[in-house]
Structure formats: C-alpha cells, structure tokens
Amino acid sequence: MKGLLIITLIASTATWAADYSDKGKSMWEKGINNQPTFSQYDINNDGKITPEELEEGREERRKQHAKEGKMMKNVDKASSFANIDTNKDGVIDKEEFRLHKIKYPQSCVTFG
Question: pLDDT by residue (tens digit) across 56-75?
Fold first, then answer.
C-alpha cells in the first residue's frame, strides 16, 4: 500500500511538472512562442524584411502548417507591411519586428 502511494505521488508530480510549463503564463506569453521569427521572413538574410519577403514568408508558414494539419488562427488579424514598417523606410528591421510583436501579439499570423 505504501509503495502504491509513493508511485502515485511520483506520477502525479511528474504530470504536474510536465503541465507546469504553461501554468501561470499569460495568454500573451503562451502565444508568443507560436509567433514567427524575424529570420523566417528575412529570406535573403540581409537583416531587413521587404514587402515581398513578408508575403513569401507568410505564404510559406501557411503551406507548412497546412501540410502539418494545423489550424490557422488570426490570419485575418495579420498586420500590413506598412503597419510594421514604423519608420517608413520601405523595409522592416529587427527592432521594428520585435516591437510590433510585443505591441500587437494578436496581429501576427499564428497557428494552433
């Protein structure tokens, strides 16, 4: 009986520990891990995202997630290039991308 109790306690602890990774995190913190990275869009690795790279990167993510059978979320909330390019220089740099993800996490294309 004592052995069974110990095994149950260990199993419960393991289950709790495995589930704890998202416990206490806000919806924003949980969702940020599903958001695209700068490098996924900076296709030519020049440190800038052009309008064409943004669209190509978004399309590639859609195809990949469709292939994996994942449901797409927030596609209709994806920000336009102009909204992310805050300094209006025609490209999105790493800082603009980072700040946009923080300020508008729900506007990035995410997948469940």
Answer: 998 998 898 889 888 767 67
CA distance linking residue 6 with residue 25, whole number of Å: 30
Residue position matching structure tokens 């993510």:
61
Helix (H, G, I), strand (E, B) or coil at 72: strand
HSE toward the beta carbon, residue 24, CA cutoff 13 A: 4
φ, ψ of residue 111 to 5 degrees: the values are -135, 140
Q: HSE on the CB side for 31, CA within 13 Å?
A: 15
**Has this prediction a pTM greater than 0.85?**
no
Separation of alpha carbons 81 and 62, rounded Å: 17
